[in-house]
């Protein structure tokens, strides 16, 4: 581990789960896993919940780290990531914390989505080659970023060619998940393009499947996957390597 690596502290920034069986469980589990993988100090901060983004940034800086890196556990670089940036700035830490690319835009995430969906299909006795993969995102009335990130992930997943088709649906914009579930009788693997098992991933999507009576198996939120922590660790390691190469302090 480089000296620069030792000087970096990390804040995993999330929205904060509302509802669900185990609020913020994915956040704390992934933080511990990233710490184990990297040896870095890893803290968590939430827009809604404790610790707050500001407190996490302040605590990270107080470790003596030369720089704080913020990894947004969001699926798009949209409204909520902008709120994270504002809250990071409000913490008043110097030097200015590094903002990394949100989880949902990592080019490695669609591979994880597909692997989780294949595992769910196998467990349910379904043939992926004759099944539909339906990737469900949040969607938003506040801007196009959420839907665009979901569709981008779906396009990458489709290129892997393991399912008969790959489509998208949303909770807050068309096509709505209920309509997408009713639109086909083909066995469907529903993949949650969410970080945590809060109200949306843990309640809304399962409720939609039950309400429609669809022939569907749900993978849960992608943020629960054990493969996510190595993805985050790789992004942090790449940032450390970049900074080592640039000679930045």
Task: Throw out a few tags for this protein.
single chain, 249 residues, alpha/beta, Rossmann fold, 2 domains, 4-stranded parallel beta sheet, 8 strands
Walkthrough of the structure:
The protein has 249 residues and is α/β, with parallel strands linked by helices. The protein has two domains: 3-104 and 226-246, Rossmann fold; 109-224, Rossmann fold. The chain is 43% helix and 18% strand. The strands form two sheets. A four-stranded parallel β-sheet has the order 2-1-3-4, sandwiched between helices. Strands 6-5-7-8 form a four-stranded parallel β-sheet, with helices on both faces. It is elongated, with a radius of gyration of 19 Å.
List the helices and strands and how they pair.
Layout: H1 3-6, E1 8-14, H2 25-38, E2 41-46, H3 53-61, E3 67-72, H4 79-90, E4 98-99, H5 109-123, E5 132-137, H6 145-159, E6 165-170, H7 177-182, E7 188-192, H8 199-212, E8 216-221, H9 228-246
Parallel strand pairs: 1-2, 1-3, 3-4, 5-6, 5-7, 7-8
Helix pairs in contact: 2-9, 5-6
* CATH fold name of the largest domain: Rossmann fold
Distinct helical segment count:
9
Q: Considering DSSP H and I runs of 4 or more, what fraction of the residues is helical?
A: 40-55%
N-to-C CA distance: 16 Å
**Which sequence of SSEs, written as H and E, runs from N to C?**
HEHEHEHEHEHEHEHEH
Give the overall form. Answer: elongated
Strand order, main sheet: write it out: 2-1-3-4
- CATH class group of the largest domain: Alpha Beta
Low-confidence stretches: none
Assess the beta-strand content as a share of residues: 15-25%
Main beta-sheet annotation: 4 strands, parallel
Query: What count of domains describes the coordinates?
Result: 2
């Amino acid at each position: 581990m480089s000296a620069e690596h030792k000087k970096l502290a990390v804040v995993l920034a999330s929205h904060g789960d509302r509802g669900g069986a185990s609020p913020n469980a994915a956040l704390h589990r992934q933080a511990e896993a990233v710490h184990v993988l990297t040896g870095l100090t890893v803290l968590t901060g939430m827009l809604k919940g404790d610790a707050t983004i500001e407190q996490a940034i302040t605590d990270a800086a107080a470790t003596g780290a030369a720089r704080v890196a913020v990894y947004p556990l969001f699926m798009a670089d949209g409204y909520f990531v902008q709120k994270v940036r504002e809250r990071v700035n409000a913490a008043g830490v110097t030097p200015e914390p590094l903002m990394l690319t949100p989880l949902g835009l990592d080019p490695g995430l669609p591979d994880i989505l597909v692997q989780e969906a294949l595992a769910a299909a196998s467990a349910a006795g379904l043939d992926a080659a004759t099944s539909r993969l339906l990737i469900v995102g949040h969607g938003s009335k506040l801007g196009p970023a959420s839907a665009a990130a979901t569709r981008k992930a779906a396009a990458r997943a489709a290129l892997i060619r393991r399912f008969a088709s790959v489509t998208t649906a949303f909770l807050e914009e068309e096509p709505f998940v209920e309509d997408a579930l009713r639109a086909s009788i083909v066995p469907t693997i529903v993949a949650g393009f969410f970080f945590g098992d809060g109200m949306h991933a843990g309640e809304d999507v399962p409720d939609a499947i039950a309400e429609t009576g669809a022939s569907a198996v749900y993978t849960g939120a992608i943020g629960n996957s054990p493969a996510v922590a190595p993805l985050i660790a790789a992004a942090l390691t790449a940032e450390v390597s970049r900074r080592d190469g640039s000679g930045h302090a």
